[in-house]
Amino acid sequence: MLSEVQNTEALVDTNIIVNNKITLLEHLSNSDISEEKVEDDLLKEFQAYDKDTRILTYRILMEKFNGKYDGLYPSQKEVLRQYVNSVDSTPVLREFYNTEVGKIQIQLNELSSQITDKAVQIKINEVSTLIEELDKKTNVTSDNIVNILQYLELVEELKNAHG
How far is residue 14 from each of residues 2, 3, 33, 144, measured CA to CA in Å? Predict the structure, then answer.
């Protein structure tokens, strides 16, 4: 139907076009292979390598990683390092995350008191209240890591802007 709409000059109901596009996108985006299965297969394959191959693979991975994320602040690099190294240790990563969240909240509160612009000060205080620690049942997700990286960038920018 979509190709027919492109080749005709007759008026076609836009709802039909939109529904067809949505159906097509849903079909194309659905995958029979889950991400977890692919991840498990990759981990099994990596574990099957001999020790030297794993070390070499890890070293190449780290070089590419460091090259790609060279522009990050040291605090952001530390978060990513912990995330990469703690893939199999959820409690350790959660504890690190909660520690960093606490530090970020303290830094934001200190920096907020140094800011003279009331609107910015209110926004920083609001951001500080939005940052929450994870409870013992919650796993650290990639979204949590992205959030903490953004909070750290905010802290660094505030430090640079306000001494």
Answer: 11, 14, 33, 39
